[in-house]
Specification:
The protein is an alpha+beta fold. Helix content is about 45%, strand content about 25%. It folds into 3 domains: about 1-80, no CATH class; about 105-175; about 185-335, Histidine kinase-like ATPase, C-terminal domain (Heat Shock Protein 90, 2-Layer Sandwich). Helix 7 (about 225-240) packs antiparallel against helix 8 (about 300-310). Bound molecules: adenosine-5'-triphosphate and magnesium ion. Magnesium ion binds near residues 233, 236, 237 and 301.
């Protein structure tokens, strides 16, 4: 007995057992003590540490005490599985996940800050700009033709500059609004969203005698005003970037997309086309392939389209043959896939 106790204290002097929450277990709560008392353990995890040196492993304990017919202890069955490596891999994975989550959160936060900045600055710029345009109008009314030809020209430039700035700010505001307080997606008949866009473009369509052919379009999960804005920008471009002397012909169509489990909508034109190395760049904000003298515009339209499509969980891209036309395509979710 004395011998046994000496061995026991040697054991507890050398090793300590910790539960999964990190508490140190007294000997009577070690798995072997519990099994000997008649408890059955299975998959019970503990960390074993040596007190005298840097050594520790994680074990899974199981075991039971078998008795004879009279109820006397007969045999003890114990299983010990070393799961240190498995635990370590789990912890490494968990740390990687946490790091990735922290990075994503940081990115989301800085994105939000940037959008807030764009929104506030464009919003606050409108007021002083209204003053500039207001007073320029007054000056023009009162002094046009009264100073000299140069003054008239300069006033004209100033008014034009202010107008351009105003449309830039409006576009920027519109851009920064997507993603802020978005309405939830709901079933939208794409034909309705397209009809809204065509209505807004009706004067341009008439003036250019553009022909727009529309195939059957599905009902999707979306935001009608935003999807209409996508149509309006892409069709507006198709009309604007037409070949001289060639009547704009535009075709809107759709087909099921197995990959995204949604729809692909396509808008094809017979315009000037886009060079192969610029197919990505056109979707960046303020990136234009032409000067304002050649074609008017601010370079926000397609960036806005991309933001809207991505907000719908889709993507947008363009294929083009220079001098023959371009086809813009974007994916939208089905109503079934509605979040
Ligand atoms: N259908 C098209 N055919 C040829 N080029 C195009 C077409 N659509 C867009 N582009 C090119 O991509 C550029 C970016 O298009 P985006 O709609 O973003 O700007 P924008 O039309 O110039 O200005 P905004 O739309 O802000 O009035 C255009 O300036 C043009 O060079
Ligand atoms: Mg445009």
């Amino acid at each position: 007995m004395a011998e046994g106790q000496r061995r026991l204290s040697e054991l507890t002097d050398t090793f300590e057992l910790l539960a999964t929450d990190g508490t140190v277990l007294p000997f009577d709560r070690w798995p072997i003590s519990r099994i000997l008392r008649g408890e059955t353990l299975s998959g019970w995890e503990a960390r074993v540490r040596r007190r005298d040196r840097d050594w520790q492993r994680v074990f899974l304990y199981g075991g039971t005490l078998a008795r004879d017919a009279a109820g006397h202890p007969l045999v003890v069955v114990v299983s010990i599985t070393d799961i240190t490596d498995r635990k370590q891999a789990q912890e490494t994975l968990q740390q990687a996940v946490e790091r990735a989550e922290a990075a994503a959160e940081e990115l989301r936060r800085s994105n939000e800050e940037l959008e807030q900045f764009a929104y506030v600055s464009s919003h606050d710029l409108q007021e002083p700009l209204r003053m500039v345009t207001g007073f320029m109008d007054l000056i023009r009314e009162r002094y046009a033709g009264r100073i000299d030809a140069k003054a008239d020209l300069w006033i004209g430039h100033a008014v034009e500059g202010a107008q351009r700035m105003s449309s830039l700010i409006t576009a920027l505001l519109e851009y920064s609004r997507v993603g802020r307080q978005d309405r939830p997606l709901s079933p939208v008949r794409l034909a309705d969203a397209l009809a809204d866009a065509i209505k807004n473009l009706s004067i341009t369509i008439e003036e250019t005698r553009s022909a727009i052919a529309v195939d059957e379009l599905p009902t999707v999960a979306g935001d009608r005003p935003q999807l209409s804005m996508v149509f309006q920008n892409v069709i507006g471009n198709a009309i604007k970037f037409c070949r001289p002397g060639v009547r704009p012909e535009i075709r809107v169509a759709s087909r099921r997309d197995d990959e995204s489990d949604g729809w692909i909508v396509s808008i094809a034109d017979n315009g000037i086309g886009i060079p192969g190395d610029q197919l990505e760049r056109v979707f960046l904000i303020f990136q234009r392939l032409h000067t304002r003298d050649e074609y008017p515009g601010t370079g926000i339209g397609l960036a806005l389209c991309r933001k809207i499509v991505e907000r719908h969980g889709g993507k947008i891209w363009v294929e083009s043959v220079r001098g023959q036309g371009s086809t813009f395509r974007f994916t939208v979710p089905t109503v079934r896939g509605m979040a």
